[in-house]
Amino acid sequence: MMIVVMKADAGVKQTGAVITKVQQLGFEPHLSQGEKKTIIGMIGNGAKFDPQTFLAMPGVENVVPIQQPFKLASREFKKASTVVSLNGTRIGGNKIVIMAGPCAVESRDQLFKAAEVVAEAGASVLRGGAFKPRTSPYSFQGLGEEGLKILREAGDRTGLAVVTEVMSPMDVDLVAAYADILQVGARNMQNYSLLEAVGKITKPVLLKRGLMSTVEELLMAAEYILSNGNPNVILCERGIRSFEKYTRNTLDIAAVPVIKNLSHLPIIVDPSHATGHRYLVAPASLSAIAAGADGLIIEVHPKPEEALSDGAQSLHPEEFAELMSDLCRIAQAVDRVI
Amino acid sequence: MMIVVMKADAGVKQTGAVITKVQQLGFEPHLSQGEKKTIIGMIGNGAKFDPQTFLAMPGVENVVPIQQPFKLASREFKKASTVVSLNGTRIGGNKIVIMAGPCAVESRDQLFKAAEVVAEAGASVLRGGAFKPRTSPYSFQGLGEEGLKILREAGDRTGLAVVTEVMSPMDVDLVAAYADILQVGARNMQNYSLLEAVGKITKPVLLKRGLMSTVEELLMAAEYILSNGNPNVILCERGIRSFEKYTRNTLDIAAVPVIKNLSHLPIIVDPSHATGHRYLVAPASLSAIAAGADGLIIEVHPKPEEALSDGAQSLHPEEFAELMSDLCRIAQAVDRVI
Amino acid sequence: MMIVVMKADAGVKQTGAVITKVQQLGFEPHLSQGEKKTIIGMIGNGAKFDPQTFLAMPGVENVVPIQQPFKLASREFKKASTVVSLNGTRIGGNKIVIMAGPCAVESRDQLFKAAEVVAEAGASVLRGGAFKPRTSPYSFQGLGEEGLKILREAGDRTGLAVVTEVMSPMDVDLVAAYADILQVGARNMQNYSLLEAVGKITKPVLLKRGLMSTVEELLMAAEYILSNGNPNVILCERGIRSFEKYTRNTLDIAAVPVIKNLSHLPIIVDPSHATGHRYLVAPASLSAIAAGADGLIIEVHPKPEEALSDGAQSLHPEEFAELMSDLCRIAQAVDRVI
Amino acid sequence: MMIVVMKADAGVKQTGAVITKVQQLGFEPHLSQGEKKTIIGMIGNGAKFDPQTFLAMPGVENVVPIQQPFKLASREFKKASTVVSLNGTRIGGNKIVIMAGPCAVESRDQLFKAAEVVAEAGASVLRGGAFKPRTSPYSFQGLGEEGLKILREAGDRTGLAVVTEVMSPMDVDLVAAYADILQVGARNMQNYSLLEAVGKITKPVLLKRGLMSTVEELLMAAEYILSNGNPNVILCERGIRSFEKYTRNTLDIAAVPVIKNLSHLPIIVDPSHATGHRYLVAPASLSAIAAGADGLIIEVHPKPEEALSDGAQSLHPEEFAELMSDLCRIAQAVDRVI
Known about the structure:
Four copies of one chain form a homotetramer. Chain A is 34% helix and 19% strand. Chain A has helices at 12-24, 52-55, 108-121, 145-158, 172-178, 192-199, 215-227, 255-262, 271-275, 278-290, 317-333, and strands at 2-6, 28-33, 38-43, 60-65, 84-86, 89-91, 97-101, 125-127, 161-165, 181-184, 205-208, 233-237, 267-269, 295-299.
């Protein structure tokens, strides 16, 4: 893929002319307006062209190829880190974002209690599954739309944004009607129909790394969303599968700085699924922030021992509050805030 | 899950009474009629009951629990191996089934030529992708419905059944209108919306093992299809991800006898994706049959060097013909035929 | 294995009587004197006995079995964290220990320069390989004893302790004559002859986790050293093999708190081998301390681009100095010092 | 590394002159005399030289570089497959070699019985461990030299060659005094001191792939033995570590044709350790021969349920006899004999 970099002082008219030329050549233009510069990506299989075609146009600074297999997701395409904004919350900036809540929405009571707890401790996003991908067809599959309603209501009561999983392209509109952030789960990271569907909305998408996927494959999955028009992608490292047995998965902590280097997209960590054990959530969370993560998504349940799923890895409310205070100290040590 | 095993001489009326009782208790009955015995599985969360309730009914031989996490897919539930029939082809019986063809349907010419080649060499199913799951959104994504039409036509001309991938629950009806077998690809093995959708049709489903999924997870995925009502599931081992670099994936050959032991479902092997190199397809194919596989799905292309995808692992027509002859000898050595 | 726990006020005579009884029963006694309590482990296959035999003896508080497969290495056996002391340096206490230096001792000049650099930046142990385990027999294999001499001299000049690898049981005495800490490398983690040999000396042993070994296997390897009589074992997480390709290995950061939970032994992290890239060493180091590691072993080379091995993952002197200052801040945030 | 290929009609004198020149340039010459041609490998870091130096010498046909990281082990260096001979047995030729016996030598009775059983069923090599590498220092570690004596005696009585593991460079002479083939176990595949020690004897070495090692690393380990002067190396695929849990390890069946392609060394398969379950040994064995393996090493125990180690994966005598008969049929189907 080639990108056309506009000069800092290029005007709307000049940018428009470049976009028209890109279209004339048979490519789809992708606009990225940074604070300083505007960049136009040329997606698809258009005609062959001489870079001079663009270099000769007013306002054009340069025409450069992107070497990485992922294009719109790469730092080559966009140097400045992307900050995803939703209401008051900004994800990818200096402030670290904490998403927390139960694995599944189980009831009004459970979720309202959880929402209060996590809001009070300082989280800014409430998590909770309404559609649950379960290994067994006989396990609890979530409350569906009823769960979405409860989640929305809990978010509104506490002022928290809400994130929840969508499992099928057919449910994207439904979930988007209630949630602030749509999660694509690890098992669906390469469900291309779903990626295309969430690429066609504008709400932020939390894309979890597949437990069997390389970082490159994660960024290629993000590329599906970006190239379909949705620039609001948040990546999530949630542990990969290895041979180690004391943990549910293996937290690939180095993926955080690797992704920061390769991509401009925000990256958060899920210490709960990555480790699978309550006693490991705190050290994993601290290490994630130390490694440069932009946030965390943590399972917290008012009564973990009664949870319908993932109880063993869910924090008690008081454990979460204590962790938040420890996180503040680590954040400070890397010049960030929570 | 509990199953009710009927006596060999139990009649329709007795079986019907048991089914009614199962429903009254709040379970969904799953009927499996073997050559000798009829079994009724009790799916879902019904009322607690005393096994005596059933043991006291005429025609009932036994009531037993299934210990495995997968139920309908287990040999505990159904001792006799399942044979999936489509037109003249039977998958899972003594005859080994060979599916072959190009990775993707690229054109009428290419596919017709491929179909002739594989039919002549003795294959009974033609493979070819119309919807292609590609890591990059910028790679060739398949011809879509146009590809399905070509595939159907090629199958009809040569008398081959056709198998092709379906990637989205929204496309299941479309693909089922053209294909004899619907493939769920490795990346979608835990795409539960898709599994449920193919579970609601009756055409056979070829379910490929995810490249980092355990055998148990594969059988749980099959359980989603079976529990939605479609008993015609064919499993496929296609290589798992490991650290070894000389092969694209690592063919888990032991998965074949492991699955034969755990499940009654037929299991075939994909030596092309499992190895990723043309020179390895033949030894991998021979080893699969020696290990007890019920069939193979092999990439064959009239001109591999011109293939739009997977050229490096596609056999030339003459290589495929030679392999078929070698396979006959191995099949004989394990008392099977091709 | 059973352990006999002595009362806090038990005297030497009472402990001695228990030891004698243990021997009479055919076991080998292993003594662990904690600050508060003394514990006697009973190793080997002795006679069956009634716990009452010991409970009736004066000074005995309890007799309990150790459930873990590793015994002397477990927290069940010894609750208090082990602190390995060498000269002034204590490993496993509140102070975090930094070991640093080049992959290999290449020359007097190179090592003296490296030693100065790491000493000045605040490290307390100098690393440098004299015997190098190399994948190819044609690669640089290290300077051997000449390297050991240089290493010793560099340590003495700068006041640093020195750590270096031993690859064969036949070299243990030689290496122990020069080094303060003997390293058993990842490839030799299950070289039992070597483990037994370093178990028979008293100098501290740095035991690196094999790149595809589980934590349990690491602790079992430590058990070989401990059961041969050497209590001074320092564990090291240095990355495990996975399918991810952007990093040389996958740093299993959760192994740090997992090991802290299972064992009393100190655990340090090698961010250089774990990641394989210079730009990842700093974030990996920070995350290790945040996760609770007792120290780090970092590759630093005066001129990484001229290194005979591992240049790409070695820090420049100024990078190391900067990292040390960042580490101080993280250490403070988890109530430790460097 | 460069190799000098001599003309088919080159005489001893001409070859000698080349060897002298190689030495003069500072390389160590490695001679490989094939049926048709003689090849001289130039090992080590000698002086730079113009290929013309050799091309101008009488009897020299060509001077070519070896591209693979492994040199003496590569097919580039030696096109014809190596056949390792010991007494009457030839390993690597058309005849498939079967090695069988118990995991460990437990007693005279046990081993003599096992030897009779495997000899009668048609095996040509007896296996049995005298030095056992065990994960736990508290497990049975083998009978040591006493075990070697029993093994030798059992071999002599039945006319079987014997293979047994050596774990330490210090034991190489001792083990070589009793065994016909020395095994380097999976855990020691990168124990370079041991590889060098077995490289300095002439008895055949059975080198097992590490459960965490790539094929390239296996061939590099073989290179250590070859470059130390011992050309009699037999490779063994014995399963690698993966995430799959129904098998002890994952048999990497494709490694067989991969190695056949890369190297001239014989390669056998260990279906017992690769699968870990008795019911999988037969299908794994059949698949190995179908894939082109030169032999098998199978655990057989007179009474598996009483075995001190690996009982669950050891065949009963009658199972082994039946397997041998099935193997004959598969061997025939790939034009080989047993």
